[in-house]
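Appendix B. Raw example, untouched.
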Amino acid sequence: MAGLGGRGVTCAEVREALEAHILRREPLPVEVAAHLEGCPDCARELALLRSVELALLEEVPGQAPPPGVRAAILSRARQTRRRERPPVLRPAWGLGLAAALTVLLVTGALLPGSRTSAGPLPDPAVVVSTGPDLIVASNDRAGTVTLVRGDRARASVSTGGRQPAWFTEGVRLGNRIYLADAANDRVLEVQPDPLRVLRGIPVPGGVAGLAAGEGAVYFKSARGEVGRLGGTVVALADEGEMPLADVMDGVLLRGGRLYVTHHLGGEVCVLDPVSLRVQARWRVGGAPVALAGTRDGVLVLDLGGRLLRLDDSGRVSREWAVPGTPDKLTLNGDLALLSDRAGRVTRVNLESGAVTPVPARHPMDVTTLPGGTFAVAEGAVDGGGAGVRLLDASLTTRGRLED
């Protein structure tokens, strides 16, 4: 990039410098670094190239690519990123599927939709409604994220990672979906249509819970911190390492307050969403792991088999006993739907108090859909049985997308 000194640089010049930086390990010129601070598109380009480099190192650590292959893959990644429907990739050397997945990983390239999900739905763990569509995140080695429209998987991307994905939560903010991957200490920002992973936001310690609202995404980390993505982080509790299966907590933004469960301490903590200062700690006992807001207060789901309603002072105004060890909660009017990985979903009528459990295949997550129906992500059991089940308000199955 000789000759850039003393004048502004164009995006085209910056991208040439980025390729040289990645391919030949050349340092970034000062002008380029300054441009990146004020240009989100070029900053994303650098993240893209670095992701390709990292993915190559992760997927094929024992085999060095032939001369020029790294440059070719980087170039192909930049080209496919700008196409609506890229061609099928057929790597000509020993990387095989790993190279193809690498390009899909970093470009967010669309795969043809399919009614079967050998690719799209390998092990559903988190499901998020975009309104017309569903985003399904799977706990497989590729960290597959799938766009479901109607009864079909329309597109799928691999998110990769140093560890097999462990998605714990997903939320929607505007036209973006945010997915917490606790195994890889990150939150993924996803564009639903066309489906692309825009970036990964590091969250050391892994994410146990997410909430979105008022232009921000809030998280509770597995090691006891609460923060805004890209912003303030405070320590709520000092939590040590725990198995991924135990990484779970609820976060809720409601009425100018941020509510966060601390399931190891049996607490619901109330924070100011701007300063993240703790305003109150409500001792509810058990292991609270999920939250939902109602017109009468806050619903708290206890892993020990209780659903509580707290008023604005933290007093328990109503309690329902529910079967099993439910850990996810969604709300549709006066109906709450709980999921229990042991093999059931439970409907609680908040008005009548009726509690109705029905069997399900390893339900990992639930969400409410437009029209009053529910989607249940059913994870794989013994290598099979994965899919997304659609239930109506009576818990009758109205559809299913399976692997």
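End of appendix B.
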